Amino acid sequence: MPVRPLTIGEVEQAAEAALPPETWDFVSGGSDAEVTLRANRAAFDRIALTPRVLTGVTAPDTSARLAGTDSTLPMAVAPIAYHRLYHPDGELAVARAAKTLGVPLTVATLSSHRLEDIAAVGGPLWFQLYWLRDRGQIVDLLRRAEALDFRCVMLTVDCPPYGRRLRDVRNGFRLPHDVVAANLADPHRHVARAGEPGAASAIASHTDAIMHPALSWRDVAWVRENTRLPLVLKGVLDPRDAVLAVEHGADAVVVSNHGGRQFDGAPAGVAALPAVAEAVAGRCELLVDGGVRHGTDVLKALALGADGVLLGRPVMWGLATDGERGVETVLTILREEFTHALALTGCAGPAAARDLRVTHVREDRPC
């Protein structure tokens, strides 16, 4: 990116030009007809906030505390597998950029660098856990995360089964030979590689092979008992499940439809957020993801009851275009936009967003 982009949309365009088409489809696509994928973005566009005036705010404080972690912004990097698909430095580049900007990075179970190597970069780290078939590996991952001073465990509860991601199926998507799930005991097992035969998505086959298909509340309780770290459940949309999450020891919930990559027809995370916020009534922290592309989106999420947001695809777009500097660019754009949005709405900080009046515009009148 020779000229610094001014918007996440410009970073997205640069990433599409830089990545092989099948890799672009993998990071940017959704499941089935991609209805939920589109709904994530459309839901933000239908939200309007009424600014307050004469508040005297000139320099808003953007800092937040998320899942027991101090952050310079009410944002964290979402868990995403295989960062090395987008840049050779992978998670190490993202960790360096997140450290520079002072926001947490959620390291995925299927990260393409070892937890130990990512932790060596420094900066606040969260660990995302998939419910593996091998419970011994789960225990090993939890112990490693604790020993490396990860700040929380984020259990993804809406996968498996793996969503039907038709772009990957049509492309017969395969991982390159040098990209592996570096934290698994046998990272090459069940993984079809580039150049090997087969029509289905190799990522889908690998995920279904290593993950247990029957995650339950009993298993959530088991994770709670087997880690001393704060527990976050990612993938909750129904308020009833959010209440159960609190009852089973969750410290935070991520209101999420997996970026439109699981059940196609689910509501947008930000659309589900108000009912979830009402149901938990402050008994746990709330994060939301899916479709965040502007600093104003962050403010909208806060106004609807979230404590913060997770950033997914935009971070990978930045990584694909310019490695560590590209991720820094994405986070800097969002920081500047969010700070400006706070000032323009008269908010001294993230907490003040709760007092903003929210209205919803018709679908044919995006704001």
From TrEMBL:
Give the UniProt keywords, A-Z. Answer: Flavoprotein, FMN, Oxidoreductase
The entry marks the following residues as binding glyoxylate, namely 165, 261
Keyword Oxidoreductase, does the record have it? yes
Q: Which residues bind FMN?
A: 79-81, 128, 130, 156, 234, 256, 258, 289-293, 312-313
Residues forming the FMN hydroxy acid dehydrogenase domain are 1-363
**Cofactor(s) listed in the protein's UniProt record:** FMN
Against SUPFAM superfamilies, the record matches this protein to:
FMN-linked oxidoreductases
Instruction: Show the active-site residues.
Output: 258 (proton acceptor)
Q: Which PANTHER family match?
A: 2-HYDROXYACID OXIDASE 1, S -2-HYDROXY-ACID OXIDASE-RELATED
UniProt name for this protein = 4-hydroxymandelate oxidase
